[in-house]
Write a structure and sequence with these properties.
Blueprint: H1 2-18, E1 25-28, E2 43-47, E3 58-62, E4 75-81, H2 89-102, E5 103-112, H3 114-130, H4 137-142, E6 160-169, H5 170-179, H6 183-195, H7 197-203, E7 212-221
Parallel strand pairs: 1-2, 1-4, 2-3, 4-5
Antiparallel strand pairs: 5-7, 6-7
Helix pairs in contact: 3-5, 6-7
């Protein structure tokens, strides 16, 4: 759906720039497909469980993000997209440490950021209820804890450089998520991504306006 493309397309651009041609990739909190919805090369996808069988090219590993079963610097690139908000605040620091431990070159960590994004998801939750629909489990989890913000990375290990990609305005995100609740819009979004993904990729940055829903933090290791 369009909401997946909105958060993954900027990440794909980062991977194109930093991931070597034969480099390996891991995604934390991938679910059954993760970036594989838009990525054709094999990659490792980690999650606590897989409710449905994972889809290729994802190679599944069941584990907790705060204790990744990989050696130091096992992967050229790591993705954690819309994961940190699902992790209790007391465990987030440990997850960040594990991310930097297992990554060689580039780590991309994106999440809904701050109180404005949390309040918007509260509105979306109420919209589900007003339509007599059960809110999806991921949205229920969003409301359990405050969203992380930039302070999550105050103790980044030495040797890493950070840049920030600001992703999706609050207004656009709410419109898109409400639209995807309707079959007509959901089908239109799928068709657009199938027929003209390049056009969608060029248009989506127009939705990146303040105040932002999501921040994507790109960390690269200094040579």
């Amino acid at each position: 759906m369009l909401n997946h493309a909105t958060r993954y397309f900027p990440i794909l651009k980062v991977l194109k720039e930093y991931l070597p041609p034969n480099g390996n990739l891991v995604e934390i909190g991938s679910g059954m497909i993760g970036v594989g919805e838009f990525w054709s090369r094999p990659f490792v996808g980690c999650d606590l469980s897989f409710a449905r069988p994972p889809k290729a090219p994802l190679q599944p590993v069941i584990c907790s993000a705060d204790a990744l079963p990989f050696h130091d610097r096992s992967f050229d690139a790591l993705i954690a997209s819309d994961v940190m908000e699902h992790i209790p605040p007391t465990q987030r620091g440990r997850v960040v440490s594990e991310i930097f431990r297992v990554t060689r070159t580039v780590a991309v960590i994106g999440y809904p950021c701050g109180q404005g994004a949390w309040a918007l998801d509260r509105r979306l939750h109420e919209h589900y209820r007003s339509r007599g629909l059960p809110p999806p489990p991921w949205l229920e989890e969003h409301l359990l804890n405050p969203f992380p913000d930039e302070a999550l990375f105050v103790d980044v290990p030495a040797g890493w450089e950070m840049k920030v990609i600001r992703n999706e305005s609050l207004r656009f995100h709410l419109w898109m998520m409400r639209a995807e609740m309707h079959r007509t819009w959901a089908r239109a979004f799928r068709l657009a991504l199938l027929i003209a993904p390049g056009l969608v990729r060029r248009l989506l940055p127009m939705a990146n306006r303040e105040p932002y829903y999501r921040m994507i933090f790109v960390f690269t290791r200094r040579q």
